[in-house]
């Protein structure tokens, strides 16, 4: 069965493998406006795809930087909490030592 495809059901969807369109008799040859020709369309499409990919990469990079900044803030807060805890412990030990010294002096 060697039938050609129709407009609704083409033989292939790949435009490179499709047969070229036959020129219309109702339109003069070369009547297409140069702005609407497909030569620049592929370049524009590739630029848009690259631009979208770069936007995704920039978004991912910004998200990663934000996560790194949050992790650094978390580590800094944890170190501060540990330092405050150790300072309170040292102050309590100092007070115990003072009391012990005062008791020793009083006796």
Structural overview:
- With 107 residues, the protein is mainly α.
- The chain is built from 1 helix and no strands.
- The chain starts with 38 loop residues before the first helix and ends with a helix.
- The mean pLDDT is 80.
Ordered list of secondary-structure elements with their pairings:
Elements: H1 39-106
Summarize this entry quickly.
By secondary structure, the protein is mainly alpha-helical. The protein has one helix at residues 39-106.
Strand segment count: 0
Overall pLDDT level = 80
Shape: rod-shaped
Q: Report Rg.
A: 38 Å
State the end-to-end distance.
117 Å
- Poorly predicted spans: none
Q: In this structure, how is the largest beta sheet organized? A: none
Percent of residues in β-strands: under 5%
Query: What structural class do you assign from the helix and strand content?
Result: mainly alpha
Instruction: Assign a percent range to the helix content.
Output: 55-70%
Count of runs of 4 or more consecutive helical residues = 1
Give, in order, the helices and strands: H
Kindly list the characteristics that best describe this protein.
mainly alpha; 1 helix
